[in-house]
Amino acid sequence: MDERIVKFLKKMHLAGVCAIDNEGQPYAFSAFYAFDELNFSLLLASSDESSHVKFLKNSKLVAGTVALDTKIVGKIEGVQFQGVMSEASASEREIYFKRFFYAKAMDPKIWCINLEKLKFTSNTLGFGKKIKWERSDKI
């Protein structure tokens, strides 16, 4: 993965994610995430009772965005991604709690979005400049 994408994902903390609901329709949610730069995944906390986690029984495929909130056109940056969401491992949980240490007291369930495809747009590299990445070792 390009180091500029890694730097961006490490800097940000909020993702908009879309799962598929029981009627096959898109269902969007927002989540704080920690980026696992070794495995190229986003780690997030969510309850088994949340709608989006329940929808994982339909499909573990998700898509989403991470974007810098700015009105300055020359500073616009963001990522569009596709991935597979599943329960996080113990080591992935530790990555999440390292970033959001205060969340550990609530003992939330941690989930992993294993990134499969990603497009990074950054106007800091030139207007509309895009860098694409795709996982070479597919799940």
TrEMBL record:
It comes from Campylobacter concisus. This is Pyridoxamine 5'-phosphate oxidase putative domain-containing protein. It comes from the Bacteria. InterPro entries: Split_barrel_FMN-bd.
